[in-house]
Amino acid sequence: xxxxxxxxxxxxxxCVASYLTMLALDLNGQRYNKTEYAEALMRKLDDRSRGSVExxxxxxxxxxxxxxxxxxxxxxxxFNYQLELLSVVESQLAGNPVVDAAAQAAVERPAIExxxxxxxxxxxxxxxxxxxxxxxxxxxxxxxxxxxxxxAREARNRSLGRAGELFVxxxxxxxxxxxxxxxxxxxxxxxxxxxxxxxxxxxxxYESDGRERLIEVKTTxxxxxxxxxxxxxxxxxxxxxxxxxxxxRLFDFREKPKVFQLPGSIxxxxxxxxxxxxxxxxx
DNA sequence: ACCGGTGCAAAGTCAGCTGT
DNA sequence: ACAGCTGACTTTGCACCGGT
Length: 283
Known about the structure:
Elements: H1 9-27, H2 34-44, H3 50-66, H4 83-94, H5 97-108, H6 150-155, H7 158-178, H8 182-187, H9 191-194, E1 203-206, E2 212-219, H10 232-240, E3 245-251, E4 258-263
This protein binds a DNA duplex through helix 3.
């Protein structure tokens, strides 16, 4: 088949099915051989190259990301996908208890504490806007009962959140120590634990000149571009103390944790979608 | 028998190009 | 602008080997 020929529905379906099988294994922490799956898939396709199959997998990652699902780390989301892909992914997810169970287990699994590694650098640069689709799909009510909000569940996983905060605590102490600020490094405080979570940040740290650095930690076991929940308090604090505030986004937290930071007001970096409302009775 | 080092092939990743 | 694709690059796994 010549390049540029569009994928048939059957091809797209085979590709999505293969991807979801791998995703379930991935979420369960099982090992699998991506190449083997790709080769088996290619035998069902209409003479597609290895690269094009790879590319389609990246498109599926993008779809899953937009649907609020975890995706396979290593198939970096590529957003120029055809609309049919979206519909195929949605319908296969709807009837897929295996992926659902794996995703649920993954978001609820207690996190083990991960020490800051000496060897590899955990810092990465924040994703550039170009890597994400600028205009998000309009909010479309989705009343499917099977649709679960895995990211909300993960956000409620206290053990994961705590592990992330402790990781950042360690990271900050090490940073200051490396800058020769031993005293400051000892003053880094886990305020989420000592003063509760009403402050709008989790860790009180310091710049090397002694100014405060207010850090909100957001942790996910999934990939870099995974959306996250922020509270009204956190937004407000990031606006009120924009010069001191930094959001640390920890991702890939179970394997090799990485982190990027968003300094200042959260609204300056992210598009905020209201997802829940507080309903009060009319007076 | 066991350990760690080495080198190479297989597996995996991804930036950027191409045709419509 | 979009959907598809290429190929070069990086990482990982593993067979082999020599020293203990």
